């Protein structure tokens, strides 16, 4: 299974040709996104709504919120379940120094024995046994 991190989801939504090509080459059931990525994207969309200063900005912010909701209706969404939490707690005990959300995404990937698709090798490479790939590279 391949898990797209938040950055790769944003690249896909933005039409990045290599990411789209790689996603199209994989059986849809073999690709997933974590609920943590959903949380991050929704948080960003809600912030844009709160920060909108003009009618056009507000209308665009709501359109992007809707498009994000629609996207997440079409993907396999992986939960932060007990197995993921146990992996997360173990990574905290190991004092893995990456952001909390990235650590949660890594824990979900580890608990599913999945490959995390990310450009953020600098941080995610610190997580023992986490398999990584980057679909922005040809």
Tell me, what is the CATH class?
Answer: Alpha Beta
- Poorly predicted spans: none
Q: How large is the radius of gyration?
A: 16 Å
Task: Write the element-wise H/E pattern from the N-terminal end onward.
Answer: EHHEHHEHHEHE
Please count the helical segments. Answer: 7
Class from helix and strand fractions: alpha/beta
Distance between the termini: 20 Å
The neighbouring-strand order within the major sheet is 3-2-1-4-5
Oligomer: single chain
Explain what this protein looks like in three dimensions.
The protein is an alpha/beta fold. The protein has one domain: 5'-nuclease (Rossmann fold). It is 57% helix and 12% strand. The chain has a five-stranded parallel beta sheet. Helix 7 links the parallel strand 4 and strand 5. Helix 3 packs antiparallel against helix 4 and helix 5 crosses helix 6. The longest helix has 18 residues. The protein is globular and about 50 Å long. 27% of the residues are buried. The mean pLDDT is 96.
Q: What is the topological layout?
A:
Elements: E1 2-4, H1 6-13, H2 17-24, E2 31-34, H3 35-51, H4 55-72, E3 76-78, H5 82-93, H6 100-111, E4 115-117, H7 121-124, E5 131-133
Parallel strand pairs: 1-2, 1-4, 2-3, 4-5
Q: What does this entry show, briefly?
A:
The protein is an alpha/beta fold and 138 residues long.
Q: Which features characterize this protein?
A:
single chain, 5-stranded parallel beta sheet, 12% strand, globular, alpha/beta, Rossmann fold
